[in-house]
Amino acid sequence: MTVRWIRAALAAALVGALGLTACGGADEPAGPDGAGPVTVFAAASLTESFTTLGKEYEAAHPGSSVTFNFGGSSGLATQITQGAPADVFAAASPATMKTVTDAGDADGEPAVLVRNQLVVAVPRGNPARVGGLADLARPGVKVALCAEQVPCGAAARTALDAAGVRLTPATLEQDVKGALAKLRLGEVDAALVYRTDVRAAPGLDAVEFPESARAVNDYPIVVLRAAGNPAGARAFVDFVRSDAGIAVLTAAGFQAPPGA
Length: 260
Hints:
Signal peptide: 1-22
Mean pLDDT: 89
Low-confidence stretches: 1-18, 25-30
Shape: elongated
Largest sheet: 7 strands, mixed
Distance between the termini: 31 Å
Number of strands: 12
Helix content: 25-40%
Protein name: Molybdate ABC transporter substrate-binding protein
Keywords: Metal-binding, Signal
Family: Belongs to the bacterial solute-binding protein ModA family.
Pfam families: SBP_bac_11
Structural class: alpha/beta
Oligomer: single chain
């Protein structure tokens, strides 16, 4: 797997450089039945699962290649509305997806792919003895949160409000990977992130708390109106929403959507 930096030709001044992770080559022309390149903008918390699914999609669709841009959903939505080239958008909340649909950049109605829930991530062994949200407000406990404009931050605020906890975070990050990085570097004692992110991170434990049930995030996915490969985009969305795709996602700790 390689990491490339590209610029949207019509929106370089507005969007800047996008970090794209490619599962395969991206020079094939668009084609039917899922062939050709597909560019997917996806929430950072989907990184591990979508990387796996991208490889499986390429194996099942000869001649295809999937390139990912993972990041905070709000930033990805802004990039899309400002002209960044993408075929599929998978967000970590309906609110960030609404930015794209309200701008007329979605091709059809988004579908809920999976759901996710917050936990308190702590180093293995939980040295700060965090047992719930109230412990995050103890003197001397340093906490990483996501910024409120991104889904993990909005969910954290909902959970903290439900628990009646007020705290001043040591850092506000633009996505869950940033919050986890602060924890793994030892700069904080705990981070409010998704259950799936802790499961994918060695050396960390998850502390469950009841208020997380008040802040469950739906993850919508949609083909984009300006998709360069609409057939490939639809094939990719169908693939990740298939029983096999949902199995990969639920194995990573995501919850299947209602009715699945």
